[in-house]
Amino acid sequence: MRSLGDWPQSLERAFRTLSRGARLYFKNGSGRAWVQGTSYLLRRLSGRAVPLSVCLATTYRCQCSCPNCYAAARERESAREMSTEEVRAVIDQVKVLGAIHLNITGGEPLLREDIFDLVAYAHNIGLITRISTNGYLLTPERVAALHRAGLNQCGIAIDDADPATHDRLRGLPGLFERATQGFRLLHEYGIESRLMTYACHGNMPPGMERILGLARRLGVRSVHMNFPYASGLWAEAFDEVFSADDMDQLRRFQGFMKSPLVLLEFPTPEARCLVAKKNFVYINASGKVTPCPVVPYVIGSVRDEPLTSIWKRHADLLRMDYRGNCPMGEPAAREALRAHAAAVLSKIPPPGGVRADVKET
Q1: What's the pTM?
Q2: Vertex 138, ends 164 and 225: CA angle to 5°?
Q3: Contact 274, 51 (CB under 8 A)
Q4: Which of 63, 237, 309, 360 has its CA 20 to 30 A from that of 147?
Q5: Burial state string for 234-259 with b = 16 or more CB within 10 A and e = fewer than 16
Q6: 233-238 long-range CB contacts below 8 Å, 24 or more apart?
Q7: Quick one: angle between helices 84-97 and 115-124, nearest 10?
Q8: What distance in Å separates the CA atoms of residue 298 and residue 58, rounded to the nearest whole number?
Q9: Which pLDDT value is given to residue 361?
Q10: Which residue has the higher pLDDT, 64 or 263?
Q11: What is the 3-state secondary structure (H, E, C) of the chain?
């Protein structure tokens, strides 16, 4: 039960969320986007489970070698990436599903030669389009092309405010300079910017304070602050996972800075995981669908059946209430997610269904 003291904060967060959404819609300038947004709201109000956002990886390729990459996979080197036609078909399915945000990611999405065509296609059918990038390829020519394609927002990853440390963590010399120049180019062309970073045991809170200072100097619109996930290359790194006390420290940091810039996935101990809220789904570069980018358990493939069919089985079977942290960091919840994915993939739900109702304490 939420206390009365929590309501002002909740209302403030709701107001910020609505403000950000309205800003993106007005900048989008597309009547189709408003129709899609209205359709989403009507579906949700009617009680239908419709994801707010779909995250679509277009490639596994990347110039970086981050030690904690969640996109790293065994099939990374051999996977057959979806073609332009296949990705376009998936974008069509995202629209039919009813989502309003498409976040194009990777790997590094700017390594795809057709990326501008894909962004333009998503924009033209009425989706709010975002790209998540390491920033290395954000040259004036590419940023101009993204602007012409109708990109609404671009997130650039910054792991440390110190250039040498950032480049070392990413394994790519000169990346920090190229990434910060990318922010300036985005602003020049009127594309909304987001700095994406992560807190960990080694940088809280001084490192986060320095990154927030950098964000202010760069003039970014928002800072999306992640935390360690037991996924990808850190699949078994449970010692890196934040405890409830660590998450409280991160929230206190956000409150102490009193900055509307900082966005947390779990702003309160009662905030539910986006998977549990049925607000999110992820499609990897080979067309496989998982509940979230950091949840590796496959629930279907868009190369085999429509996304709407996969989503319906997933939403109908999911029984999950996880709050305050990522369920991948807790063995019982992690196993429940794995069992849930197996049930969705098999199309034969087990008797009584699969419950993933472990709560973070």
Answers
A1: 0.90
A2: 60
A3: no
A4: 63
A5: beebeebbbeeebbeebbebbeebee
A6: 233/66, 233/67, 233/68, 233/69, 233/70, 233/72, 234/67, 234/68, 234/70, 235/296, 237/68, 238/329
A7: 30
A8: 17
A9: 37
A10: 64
A11: CCCHHHHHHHHHHHHHHHHHHHHHHHHHCCHHHHHHHHHHHHHHHCCCCCCCEEEEECCCCCCCCCCCCCCCCCCCCCCCCCCHHHHHHHHHHHHHHCCCEEEEECCCHHHCCCHHHHHHHHHHCCCEEEEEECCCCCCHHHHHHHHHHCCCEEEEECCCCCHHHHHHHHCCCCHHHHHHHHHHHHHHCCCEEEEEEECCCCCCCHHHHHHHHHHHHHCCCEEEEECCCCCHHHCCCCCCCCCHHHHHHHHHHHHHHCCCCEEECCCCCCCECCCCCCCEEEECCCCEEECECCECCCCEECCCCCHHHHHHHHHHHCCECCECCCHHHCHHHHHHHHHHHHHHHHCCCCCCCCCECCCCC
CB 156 within 8 Å of CB 193: yes
Where does residue 47 fall: left (phi above 0), alpha (psi -120 to 50 degrees), or beta otherwise? left
Residue 281: is its pLDDT beyond 50? yes
CA–CA gap between residue 230 and residue 222 (Å, rounded):
25
Q: What is the pLDDT of residue 319?
A: 87
Token pair belonging to 99: 């989502």
Which two tokens mark 9? 């904060």
Amino acid at 273: C
């899609």: which residue's tokens?
A: 36
The CA-CA-CA angle for residues 334, 340, 345, to 5°, reads 130
